[in-house]
Each structure stands twice: as structure tokens, then as C-alpha cells.
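Reviewers asked in the last cycle whether our approach scales beyond single polypeptides. To address this, we selected a multi-component target totalling 342 residues and predicted its structure end to end. The input consisted of the following lines:
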Amino acid sequence: MAHAGERLALHVKPVDIMSPQAEPLVLGQDDIITVEREQWPESSISLQLSQHCHFINGPVFARLADRYSQKSLLDELAIATAPWELVQQETQSAALHQRYGGRVLLKRRTGGYDGKGQHWLKQPEKTDIPADWRDEAIAEQAINFDEEVSLVGARTQDGRCVFYPLTLNLHQDGILMASVAPLARLESLQTKAQAMLSCIMNELNYVGVMAMECFKIGDDLLVNELAPRVHNSGHWTQSACHISQFEMHLRAIAGLPMPEPKVNYPAVMINLIGVEKDNNWLSLSNGELFWYDKAVRPGRKVGHLNLSAQDEVELSQSLKLLSLWLPEQYQAPLEWAAKASR
Ligand code: ATP
Ligand code: MG
Ligand code: MG
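The resulting structure, written as C-alpha cells, was:
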């Protein structure tokens, strides 16, 4: 976001709202406060920020940060989502299996990401509902989807929406491994997806970038979840679009012009998860590395690579090289990316 801000001469200053610092922040009347986290817990800094006259999307947290109210919102708007219910004190797993089938996915109401905070109930194994998940989780039907797609869009202060083309995503163990966009075969779903996300952003009076993750079943879309921020499945726009999702978000909250984003070339995004930085990646003729400089831990997203998919031969060469440089769990996603972008 800071990089995107530089181009617009907007100074982006990250703030850790949970930092124990006692001093209040120095804020100007012209400053704009945007939030890139799921929860908005109370702290002296978060209170100060949320009282600022340009605190954007304040009322959104209460509705989206909790899966219970997020799924309720989708139901209220009659937007298709995986069938679900709240896991209550008296909820029996047998009853959940009766309603939703042999595999039921419990998801913590708050705090889950990258597939953490999920618990599968499997009928043959008679898996129990963990005691401390009652009232704290929802139960969802397992969806036998064909593919996963997401839509990244942005809404202006006066209610106009712009969108990127649908992105095809591959998750492994609940974590995003790779994305491909745009794809001609997804074009027929674009209008439907845009109508769904416009409806959601309008209802929330939302300003900025929001992502809608979906399961694709034939020509139908079921919303999996919403993310009120720039999204990992939109990282390809950093390299391939004339306005990236990061710049689009800044333009929206700053009230700057927001033309429809143009796609300069198709792209593949590969997430770098729990791997050490490898300078071989920098030798890819069509690659751009984004390294977050975070401590490397298993399962942690530490960077991503955007590859141009304009030249099929070049793309397939790069994916082959990456298969040599990345560990075993990448082999299937790299093959998937090669096949999907053909
Ligand atoms: P994120 O990092 O995207 O925020 P998250 O931990 O919030 O992830 P979800 O997006 O709800 O969790 O689920 C992660 C992945 O788990 C999905 O992308 C999908 O692959 C799988 N999944 C989630 N819900 C279901 C479901 N009802 N049926 C089948 N698979 C599912
Ligand atoms: Mg999530
Ligand atoms: Mg998700």
C-alpha cells in the first residue's frame, strides 16, 4: 500500500493498533484512516483512530469480522452461500450431519485465516464438536465445488463500483497457493459476480477494495467469504493492471478518480509460503518478486511471485524452473497454474 501511495504522492503510515505505546498519535484533519485487519479490537490507539472524522468503513467490522453476522448478511441479501448455522450449546453433530451430509466444516466465528480455525466433522469417525467451539463457530455444508474463484472490486465514496476480472484460485489445506487471471472461460460469470459484490458493497455503504471468495459449481457461484480489504487473490494486479488493487483502494478512500482497471497481460501469482528467499527466482524472464521480509515459519506467507502469462512458452519455462526451486508441496500448484492458463 505504501508503494502504491508513492505514485500518488500519498504518504501511507502503518500503525499497529495493539502496540502498547502510551502516547496518542499525531493526526491531522486531512488524514484518512483505513484498516487492513479483520478485527477492530479496543485499544487506546484504535479508539483514537475510530474517532477521527475520516475513519473509513467503521460500521463494517461488526458485520464482516464475525462469520455469524457475515453469513447472516449474505442470507438477508439473498446471495447464495454454503448452507450453514450457528453451533450452539445444544447442537448435536448427528443433527448437523442429517442436515448437511457426511462432512461438515466448523469455522471459528472470528480470527480464522489461511484455513486456521477450521475443524471437520466426519460422520464415519463420529468427530465431536470441540467444547470451546460452541457459540464460537458456525457449521457449514461441505461444498463439492468445481473450482474456486474470487472477485476483487472497489466502491467510490459516491457509490460507483469498479471490478477486476474474476481470478481462479487454488487452495491447498485451506491456504491460497496460486491464482490465475484473467481467463476467457470465466467471462460469462463476470456480470453475475459483479452484481453480487455490488449489492454487498452498496448495502454496507463500503468505500475501497473488497474481495469476494466464491465456489464455482457449473455456472453458479456460492459466496465462501468476504474480505473488506485488498486481497491475496488480487496480488496479480500489482504487475498486470494499469491500476493495482492497492492503488485502487487508496484512490477510493482519498476520493481520487477511479477508472475501470485495464489488464495489460494475463498473469499467474504464486504464493511463497514457509520458504527461504531464493535469488534464482529473480532470474525468471517474466517474473516479479514481492518479498515481505518476515521471519520464515512453516505455513506462513512470506512473499509472492507474479508471472506474466502473455507468452505461453515463456510461462511454461518459468513454471518448470520454479518446480526445481520450490519444495514438494508446490509441484501440484505449479502444474495446476500451467494447465489453467493454457
Ligand atoms: P482466508 O485465508 O481466505 O481468509 P479462511 O481461513 O478465512 O481463509 P475460508 O476462506 O473460509 O477460510 O476457507 C479456506 C478454504 O477452505 C477455502 O478457500 C476452501 O478451499 C476450503 N473451504 C472453506 N469452506 C468450505 C466448504 N464449505 N466446503 C468445502 N471447502 C471449503
Ligand atoms: Mg478468511
Ligand atoms: Mg478464504
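The chain has a mean pLDDT of 96. We regard this as preliminary and will revisit it once experimental data from Aim 1 are available.
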